[in-house]
Structures are given as structure tokens and as C-alpha cells.
């Protein structure tokens, strides 16, 4: 990996006081200048100009269910994820660049789930039925202060793991995917997602919800879980559950999310060449070994 850019390094050094899981770790989310916000179309070339300082890869993930831990095998599953934001659109952006020896994203359960806590308030945000006898109250609390999303998850689109789905669609959210091979083949899957941050999401609609206003330098809660399923004939089983926070219960507990800092505009990124940028040579060499 290259050294962090100066701005990203400063963020990592000064923001650790907010750390959740893993303790002491803060990842930067790149700030897109106006005019360089990615087009959500499944073509990830918009992101190729972004330096390694902003990459999250399989090397930062921990398998928490089957016992693999940090024993990752890049010829089985490898991933590069970049997080971003823009002050004018007030949106958060996520890019997934995934190699898989057996892609089952659209028709089955090879998925990337992610959790987002825009105001960094922490606490329980999912599965309230065990805590209340009221289904109405459980529905209102589920996803209110943080949200759990899945890309595809057995069907095209971004799905929110609670009763509200409207905020995954424009103007609140958007998504697009593409892949290099048909389902079941060995190759690459690409996804771009745009979401709105919420201080209070009411599944009944935007009129009773409170949008979060992103600010440069603030810390948000984020986690991703990468599901790897190679044998779709074994229904319900999977080969790995890879988690950024290294905590399985991060799908419902805000205190177990990973801290992400909203970075200032980085002068080390050549935004003028965004349209013609070529992905970093180190990632290109690594991807070449997968074939």
C-alpha cells in the first residue's frame, strides 16, 4: 500500500477518539468535488482516480462465522471498496469492486451488506421484536437511527433490511451493478450505491423523517459484511461472512460499526483526469493473479 495522503493521515490520527470497532481504526471517505460526483451506472471508472489511501480491501475484513478469521484467500474472494461523499448533494457513495471464483449475486446470496449510522449515535437499530410487545413500535424503531442495506441479496437492487424501501430509490438513494461473467462464473462484480444519511428514518415516509446534514471532518458509523457463497445447491449455507468491524452483530448494533471520517477535498487526487484515469497498478497486478 502507498502512504496515506496528508489529509487522510491527519484524519486517522485525530479521529481515533471516536473509534468503535475495530478500536482505534478510522477509515476516510473521499470527498468528491462538485463536478466529479460519480454517475451511478455500474461503471466504476469514475473511482479509478482515487488513491489507495481510501481503499478498503479483503485484507481489512475478518470472517466471523465459519472460523476463517483473517485467513483470506484472494483467489476465492477479493474486494476493493471505496467510500465517498459530497457536500452539495449531501449524499454518501459506495463502490464495490469484487472478484469471486463463483459469482452468485443476482440469483442467489453472494452479497455485500452494509450498515450506516449517519449521526454516529450508536445503539440498537435492528430486531426490536425481542425488546417490545408492540409490532408497531418495533417497526418504527427498526432502521430509525441507523440502516442496514444489502446489494442485490437474491434480487436486483439495493434492499433495506427493514420495512421501508422507498429511501433506496431516487431521489433518496440509487444503485447500479455490472459483472464480467454470467452468474456462477469466475470473474468480477461491480456495484455503485448512493444513499441519504438519516438522523431519524421513519419508514412511513420522508415527511416524518429527518435527513442528516454531512459536514467535513465528522465521523459516521459504517460497516460492511461480504457474504461468499460458492455452492448454491447447499441452500442457506455460505463459505464466508467477512466483516469490516470483525463483529457479527454489527448488522443490528450501532456501537459495533466502524468509524469513517468525511475527508476534505484531497489535493493529491488528480480530479482533472477522472474520466481517463486508469486503476492503480498494484490493484491491477493483484487482479491479474485471480484469472
Report mean pLDDT, rounded to a whole number: 85
Summarize the helix and strand pattern as letters: HEEEEEEHEEEEEEEEEH
What general outline do the C-alpha atoms trace? Answer: globular
Biggest sheet details:
13 strands, mixed
Low-confidence stretches: 1-19
CATH fold category name: Immunoglobulin-like
CATH class: Mainly Beta
β-sheet strand percentage: 25-35%
- The total of helices stands at 3
Radius of gyration over C-alpha positions, nearest whole angstrom = 18 Å
What is the secondary structure topology, with strand pairs?
Blueprint: H1 6-14, E1 26-31, E2 55-57, E3 62-63, E4 77-86, E5 91-100, E6 112-117, H2 135-141, E7 147-151, E8 158-160, E9 174-179, E10 187-195, E11 198-200, E12 210-211, E13 219-228, E14 240-243, E15 258-262, H3 281-288
Parallel strand pairs: 1-4, 1-15
Antiparallel strand pairs: 2-4, 3-14, 4-5, 5-10, 6-7, 6-13, 7-8, 9-10, 11-12, 13-14, 13-15
What does this structure look like?
The chain is mainly beta. 8% of the residues lie in helices and 29% in strands. Strands 1, 2, 3, 4, 5, 6, 7, 8, 9, 10, 13, 14 and 15 form a 13-stranded mixed sheet that branches. Strands 11-12 form a two-stranded antiparallel ribbon. The longest helix is centred in the first third of the chain and has 9 residues, at 6-14. The protein is globular, with a radius of gyration of 18 Å. The two termini are 22 Å apart. The model is unreliable at 1-19 (pLDDT under 50).
